[in-house]
Amino acid sequence: MKTKTLQGTKKIKPQDVKTIVDTFKEGGLVVFPTETVYGLGADGTNPKALKKIFKAKGRPGDNPLILHIARRDQLQGIVAEVSKEAEALMDAFWPGPLTLIFKRKATIPDEVTAGLDTVAVRMPSHKVAHEILDAVNRPIAAPSANISGRPSTTTYKRVYEDLNGLVDIIVDGGQADVGIESTVVDTTVTPPMVLRPGKITVEELDDVVPGMTIDETIISKDDGKVPKSPGQKYKHYAPRAEAYCFVGNVNNVIAHINKAIAEHGSEKIAVLATDETMDSYQGAYFLKSMGSRDHLETIAQNLFEYLRECDDEAVDIIFVEGFEMRGLGVSIMNRLLKACGGRVKFGL
Ligand code: AMP
Ligand code: MG
User: Fold this and answer.
1) Residues in domain YrdC-like (predicted)?
2) 152 and 211 share a domain?
3) I want to staple 124 with a disulfide (CB 3.0 to 4.6 A). Which of 34, 150, 204, 235 is the partner?
């Protein structure tokens, strides 16, 4: 398939919106930017189009998709009931990086829900995403625009790397603001439960709906318990090299990573450090700061891109600094636990 690129960093041309709408309505695949990561979209009402998403990504069939909408009134065609907690969360965080799980309407294709009796819905705040979703006026199913298992894509270049030739259109929207995927909250249980941490933190959610819980399996090392969100059980976000994460007192983290570098002396080593620690490492082949420890937003924004840069450098092994399980640190650590396949050393 020949993939067409359209420009959509802040604005998108009306004729390009029309091309995208037509492509969706004909059952095609369109990658578009959102504030979290790039999304690989298809018409959420068209089972044939939905199957193409799974094929292009190599996504397991039992991993359900998130439906993206432009307006609250679109919910009527998708969900069977909306709890008062869900209303409060939508009022506070939509449009934005929050996905809510609702009881589904029977008419939603099984390809969206992977046969579950619930459905995930999000209303992105990205201007171009909004314009596209508003114009097409159907729910668009869109998982992250990457080959399954690889780090999600936050720039056009990475989307092209994974999906050129596999999709009809890629909209180039520059670099994604948030850099990690949306927070997923199940509103079919009381109190609501975070199934995937993201940009919107548990603390922020709890301010709106007190008593918010979190599926503990997603922020601890794999102990054999099955996460409630199907997608969380897969290997994810993984660079090609084996990655190891070190968490705890920063000086101890530096000491452990330097020791690990010395022990792996003959290999090509990458270290993903922070502004505060960059100058403390000796002997890394590829050394990069993800940002300041005082600004976790920057670290979230850079994380997937820098894991991919480690691949560009064809390193043999990656050592990554970890973060405290608080605020956005929870979401970053959830991604690092997966990227490292559980090779995380806590409590240093
Ligand atoms: P991605 O589209 O790559 O960001 O992945 C979407 C995430 O939402 C995956 O982890 C899915 O398992 C999760 N998800 C989608 N629908 C549901 C649902 N009905 N119940 C629980 N998790 C869901
Ligand atoms: Mg994904």
Assistant:
1) 14-200
2) yes
3) 34
CA of 72 to the centre of ligand 1 (A): 20
- Are 132 and 10 members of one domain? yes
> Measured from the CB, is residue 230 less than 6 Å from ligand 1?
yes
For residues 209 and 286, membership in a common domain is answered with no
In this structure, the dihedral spanned by the alpha carbons of residues 60, 222, 344 and 322, taken in order and rounded to 10 degrees, is: 80
| pLDDT attached to residue 222 | 66
Based on the fold, state whether residues 79 and 176 are members of the same structural domain.
yes
Q: What is the CATH number of the domain that holds 70?
A: 3.90.870.10
Q: Is 184 in the pocket of ligand 1 (CB under 6 A)?
A: yes
Task: Give me the pLDDT at residue 220, please.
Answer: 81
* Domain shared by 135 and 76, yes or no: yes
Tens digits of residue pLDDT in 190-234: 999 999 999 999 999 999 999 999 998 888 876 677 888 888 877
Please tell me whether the overall predicted TM-score, pTM, comes out greater than 0.85 for this model.
yes
Atom of ligand 1 nearest to the CA of 65: 15
Q: 138 C-alpha to center of ligand 2: Å?
A: 21
Instruction: Report whether 64 contacts 164 (CB < 8 A).
Output: no
Residues 184 and 314 in one domain: no
Distance 131 CA to ligand 2 centre (A): 23
Q: What are phi and psi of 313, to 5 degrees?
A: -80, 0
pLDDT digits over 62-92, tens only? Answer: 999 999 999 999 999 999 999 999 999 999 9
Same domain, 129 and 94: yes
Contacts for 156-162: CB closer than 8 Å, 24+ residues apart: 156/5, 156/38, 158/38, 158/304, 158/305, 158/308, 159/31, 159/38, 160/3, 160/5, 161/308
Q: So what's the pLDDT on residue 232?
A: 81
Q: Is the CB of 229 under 6 A from ligand 1?
A: yes
